[in-house]
């Protein structure tokens, strides 16, 4: 286990240039991703459901964007669970994305990332659709997109008996323990801790 942990360890270099070196490869920091339904033109803004925007911040814990994706794709749960271990909440979003074209689209997207589609434009349209402000120019077509993050919070709260607090970047509170769930998945929390020390 220790050897594996050493292999997964991230070494930080050139922080002032927003670069890190991970497993011997230098990469830029900070690609932000939206979860999008390309057919329904729906977008989920991760911060609005208690997650970070980097991919690794959207996995690895009970209330992650990955959990949301499973719920949205659960075709056999569309009208409530059918057996033990199914989602019990009867919410219109459960299973509503089954069969649709789905993607995580990042702000470093290339025009070739989504065949036949303009991924950088889709990212900018989604960003505009999720923004509460009207500052700056919005890209053409942004109004076709619907930010369903508020409905996702409603679905997750009903299924997992959690509460969302805050504005913009929401925190998740488990009422039984009053514990605020992490905004970062375990690996990202380790990285953050290493940076702070």
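-> sequence recovered:
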């Amino acid at each position: 286990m220790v050897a594996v942990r050493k292999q997964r360890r991230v070494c930080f270099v050139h922080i002032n240039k927003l670069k890190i070196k991970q497993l011997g490869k230098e990469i830029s920091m900070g690609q932000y991703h939206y979860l999008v339904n390309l057919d329904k033109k729906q977008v989920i803004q991760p911060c609005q459901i208690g997650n970070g925007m980097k991919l690794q911040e959207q996995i690895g814990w009970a209330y992650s964007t990955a959990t949301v994706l499973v719920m949205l794709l659960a075709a056999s749960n569309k009208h409530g669970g059918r057996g033990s271990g199914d989602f019990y909440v009867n919410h219109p979003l459960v299973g509503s994305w089954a069969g649709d074209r789905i993607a995580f689209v990042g702000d470093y997207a290339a025009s070739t990332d989504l065949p036949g589609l303009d991924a950088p434009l889709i990212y900018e349209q989604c960003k505009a659709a999720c923004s509460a402000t009207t500052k700056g120019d919005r890209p053409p077509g942004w109004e076709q997109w619907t930010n369903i993050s508020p409905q996702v919070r409603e679905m997750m709260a009903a299924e997992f008996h959690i509460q969302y607090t805050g504005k913009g970047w929401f925190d998740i509170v488990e009422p039984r323990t009053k514990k605020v769930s992490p905004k970062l998945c375990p690996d990202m929390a380790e990285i953050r801790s290493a940076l702070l020390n």
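The chain is about 25% helix and 15% strand.
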